[in-house]
Amino acid sequence: MSQTKIASLLGVTQPAVKQYLEEDERTYRKKLVSMGIQEKEIDDLLYSLSEILVREDVKEAMSFVTTRSLIFLSGLRFCKFHRNIDKDIPIDCNICASFYRENDESLLYSALGMLQNPLISALIPQVLSNIAFARRGASSCNDVLAIPGRIANVRGIPMAASRPQWGGSRHLSKVIITVMKVCSDVRSVMDIKYDSSVEGAVEKSKLKYSRVGPQDFADDESIADAIKSVFDCSTDVVFHRGGKGLEPVTYVFGKDPLEVAEKVVTIAKFYASN
To answer: Where exactly are the structural domains of the chain?
Structure first.
């Protein structure tokens, strides 16, 4: 991709792109780590942003960068770095915590953009996929945003069948609301397929996982209760091994849809390399 094209996609000048490219990548990584961003987070951000830019979706790219930056700021991730620069900052300063106000639908749309990746098409199960995001304190299906009609492969690209709607998935609503009783900060989940290669990809991803099942002819409540029984706040993935009348499924959890999408993208990369 030319420097001019990169400049157009990022909304900067071509000379600025030239200057960025002339600098050693390790220099930028070192700066980001010194600010408080972990190496894995850098890799995930770069991969997700690259996938969006390859599709030339400038609006989605800008939304992704802005949203992730504000989430880092509001999470007070840069405070130590900032205090090293300015010693006069009060020790109890938390002004950045108010910089970001969560927009549930915007976060889910950004995650869907990240999931439009050919690698992820191999992870869509026969029952199709969905991704859900619950309001804080969610207590019913109508408190959970998801995709009516689910996510299916369209010409090798995972695509949402419709716009996200509150109450869009009764199954994932039951799962995430039940899990929130164990860990209220975990508010998002996506279901992808399960097989031994997916399990191997999750292990390589260094994600924490548990297994449940098999359960024969299990309903939504039984599945959710089984997941809850092995769940804690450090759990990233739960493998449900299916049963009679039930396809095996992998549930990927996170604090928000962007975190879930980043984990799914990571799993997809390792799955493709198997």
So the answer is: 3-98, 104-273
Tell me which residue of 22, 10, 14 sits closest to 65, measured CA to CA. Answer: 10
Q: Tens digit of pLDDT for each residue in 134-162? A: 998 899 999 999 999 899 988 888 988 88
* CATH number attached to the domain at 104-273: 3.40.225.10
Between CA 115 and CA 112 the distance in angstroms is 5
Residue 28, helix vs strand vs coil = helix
Query: Considering only CA atoms, which of 145, 176, 174 is closest in space to residue 162?
Result: 145
Strands, DSSP E only, in the chain? 130-134, 144-146, 151-154, 157-160, 165-166, 188-193, 209-212, 237-240, 249-254
pLDDT tens readout for residues 189-220: 999 999 999 999 999 989 999 999 788 888 88
Q: Within the chain, how many helices (H) and strands (E) appear?
A: 12, 9
- For residues 115 and 131, is the Cβ–Cβ distance under 8 A? yes
pTM: 0.72
Tell me if the bond preceding 164 is cis, omega within 30° of 0.
no
Instruction: List all residues 6 or more positions away from 12 whose beta carbon is below 8 Å from its beta carbon.
Output: none
| Cross-strand pairs, 211 | 239
